Each structure stands twice: as C-alpha cells, then as structure tokens.
Fold this protein.
Amino acid sequence: MVEESPMVEFKDVTKIYSKSKQPAVEHISFKINKGEFCCLIGTSGSGKTTLMRMINRMNSVTKGQVLVNGKDVKKFNLVNLRRKIGYVIQNNGLMPHMTIRENIVLVPKLLKWPKEKLNEEAERLIKMAELPESYLDRYPAELSGGQQQRIGVVRALAADQNLILMDEPFGALDPITRESLQNLVQNLQMQLGKTIVFVTHDMDEALKLATKIVVLHDGKLIQVGSPEEILHHPANKFVESLIGEERLSEAKYETVKVKNVMTAPVKINLGASLNDALAMMKERHVDTLLVIDDDNHLKGYISIADLQRKYPHVSSVSDIMLPINATVGPEEYLRDNFSRILSRNGQYIPVVDAERKLIGVVTRASLVNVVYEKIWGEKKPATEELEKKAN
Amino acid sequence: MSAFIAQHGSELLEKTWQQIYISAISLFLGIIVAVPISVILLKFPKTAKDVIALASMLQTIPALALLAMMIPFFGVGRVPAIIALFLYSLMPIMRNTYVGLTDVNPDTIDSARGLGMTKMQLILKVDIPLAMPVIMSGIRLSAIYVIAWATLASYIGAGGLGDFIFNGLSLYQPDLIFGGTIPVIILALLADYLLGQLEKKLSPKGI
C-alpha cells in the first residue's frame, strides 16, 4: 500500500524576517496527518503564528520546505492555495461591508460558483453555525462577537476546504462563548473529518481540542505529542510550566494506578487457628484479617467481632470466615475506583490479580495520601509553615 | 433681482454652465488621478509622505498666483484654468484616499488575503469600499474648493461666473458682484449636497 502523504509537513523550516537577524522559527520539522486537530501552542513570540501562516503562504519560508498534500507550497498558485485552505483569525476578519451571506460565500464566489449554489451553501453553513437563517442578510456589526466568530468559522468551510488554519480564533471571547465555540469547532471537526491547525496560548484549549499538540518556544520545537503524552511526559520545565502545576498534579492523580498506592495486606491462612488470628490482630493493630488459601488465593475475611462471639465454640479461621465481593485489580486506575473504595463500609479494599491471588490492599489512609498530593502538589504542607511561624 | 435676471438672464445661464464645466472637469481629472495614485502610494509609505507633502505645498500657492503661472505655459483660456484647478483638487482627494485606505482594519485585509483574494480583488472589493466614506468626503471638500476658485479663472479668460464679479468690480456695480457670487454659493452647496447623496449611495451599508 502506498503511504498517504501527510496533510501538512514541515521539513527543517526556518523563517527569518527581513529586518531581524534572530530567526522567528528555526529548524522545525513535523507532520500533520489528515483528520488531525493540531494545536500549535507557545507563549507570544514563540513563532506559532508565523509557522501556521507559512502553510497558506501568508508568510514566506526562508529555509526548508512546507508541504501541503505532499507538494511544496511554493509550487502552488498562491491564490488557489489560499482558496483551498480555510482561514480563521482572532478578530473574525469578516468583511464589515458585506452581509453575512456575502461573507460566508466569499470564497465560493471567488471560485465563481453559480448563484443558486451560493445561496444553498450560505443556508447550509448558517445552520452549521447554529444561527437563524434570518441573520444571512444582516451585517457583521449587528452580530455579537461570538456570533461573528461562528460565521468566521463556517466561512472557512464554505468551499469544502479540507485544511483549516485558525489563529487564536477564540482569544478575544468571554469564557462561556469561547467554550460554546470550542464545542462547535470540535463537533465540526469530528463530523466532517477536517484537518485543523489551531494556534493558541491556552493549554486548556489545546488539551480539550487537540489530537496532536506541538509546543514551541523561542522559535524552536520543544515537543510534539498527543495531549496525553504532553500531559504525562512533558519534555522539559517549559512544557511543565505551560501545562501548569495544578494540571500536572491533576494528571499525576489521573494516572495513579491501584498498584502504586496499595500496601501489604495483613493476611492469614485458611487453616490457621483463631488463636493465631487473634495474636496477629494484636500484633498488627488491625480488627480484620484477609483469609487466603495455600496458593495465596483470596478466600474471604474474618473480623474481631465474629471471632469474639464464636471463640470458644470453633477453632479454625475458616469457621468464621465471611466472603468478600469487592476487589480491585492492580492495573486499574485509582480515579475509577476512588468513590467505590471510599463508599465501602470497610476500611480497605483487597487488590487481587487475574487469578484472584491477594497482592495488596488499598486502605483509606493511602487514599488520603493521594488526595493530599493532588491538592497540595509537591509543596510542603501548610501545617509546617504554620509551625515555622509559631516558632 | 427680476430686473437683473431680465437683463443678464441668458448670460447668467451661460456663465453658470461655464463655471460648472470648468469645475466638473477639474474635479473629475482630480479624482481619476488622485485615487489611483493613493492606491499605488499605499505600497510605498515613505514616498507617500513626500507626495502628500508636495500636494499640500501646491495648496499653499495663492490661487490667483497659480492661475497666473499657467499663462506662460498654457496661455489663457479654459485649459490653463482647468489645469490649475485640477492641481488644487488633488490634495484633499489624495490625502483622504490615502488616510482612508491606510485606516482599513488590518485584520480585514489579512483575512481577505488569507481567503485567496487577488491584489486587484483586494483593492476593488475590500480597500476601496471600506475607505469610500473618507474618499468621498475628500472629493466633497475638493468640489467646494474648485467651484469657489473657478471664479478666479475668469481672470485668465476662462469665463464663468467670475466674469460678473470682475465686471462688477471694475464698473462698481454691486448687483453684478452679487449676481456672480450668489450662484457660486448655490452651486457649491448644491454640489456638496449631491455628492453627499452619492456618498451615502456608494458607502457600504455595514459600516
């Protein structure tokens, strides 16, 4: 099978603006495949917008190559290249002197589509923008900022472009409007399978939308990866700071597995005597014991209450043993079992492997540690600071 | 007044027509030269400053002097008058057009380019429509100047309503002076009004 060429490919791309010696971006190489939602993220001056604008040649390439569908952008006819690529900028870039209808079908009109098809397209797209059809004959100034940007987004789809560039499209919007537009873009991307290159400085936005994140700093490529990879394996301190401490510890918590927090179980053999059990309870300061067979399979548990009640009449652990239903596996994520563990009446939950062999327990106390780290992060606890102050 | 019209009626019509003719041609030439120059200047901001300064300098030459200076080159009559008035009309149109074009929101231009407009489409479909109100107010200003100064063109033999005024001046006949002045004022106001209507029509609705 012939390998499909990526939608966009940067090959050792360097850009030097004519008036500065410092390259805006240097030696950048990465690929964006068809259907990917690629977020370019970095602080201002990182070169993310410069890089994106090279795709539709709004910026020229000083060195290296930018390929679209496997073809060097320099080899395209400039105007045709741009008409094939959707383009959305921060302040919507609608033509203020054109109606919404004229704005939406701007590119199809440049491509000389017949008039009826233009109207159909306008009606189809305003629906996609989730706005009433009556808006088609209004002017941009009559719409709110969020509505204008909805039009800006669907305009980029008007000539069925498969590649869409978005330059901080929601940066100027309030958080609620921004979220609704993020949802719009995400839905459109999923439904239509468009390839989107999205410039942002907002990590939340990138993590929410992207399937691939490209981190840039001072014109250099720092890391390329899926949101999960970026979040769980940030390449360096810069990426970490971009992600933010809060999200990092959140992410850490997200990936904690049961086996990471489990502790050694206090267990006793099925055949042991109640005397042994009582001695063990006293020694280990516990009021229940997990019961195993000779092969370490979990069989049940015994509690001090039952032991006390039946002590003189029976002598073996198996006589007072009660069954255990709730167990967790070592590879399960803690986050999925958190509430289950906390809501159980018991103090702990046994961890068993696939063969139901007992390998540990997760106690409420170990959950406390996880919650503690999640909330306080790596920081020293407040109590220590308080103590310091007291001294 | 009726006596004045009875005596000078046909002459008044003829002179008014001459005034309109001279002014309109000067203004027309001014527009078709100043607007394209401004569009071109947009690409050369440094040169633009010099050119606009030069046009402003032309404006400071006294109107009468400029008309007189035309005589050695073009003789007397309508042609030198039209050339002088044309030079006068350049500055307001050029300055307004240039300012209007540079004031178009860069985001709008960026987005129009990014969507794949050719340079010509960008100028005709985005730049000029959006700058139209400012361009038109420059044209209105020029029109008023040109109509008023066309009166002086009579001095170099171009005819027009100035003939009445200069005759009135030399014969000391106030009715001739007023008979020439009032139509000039009316013409200027009328031109301003009509161009104002045109401006409304040409200016895009959304802005």
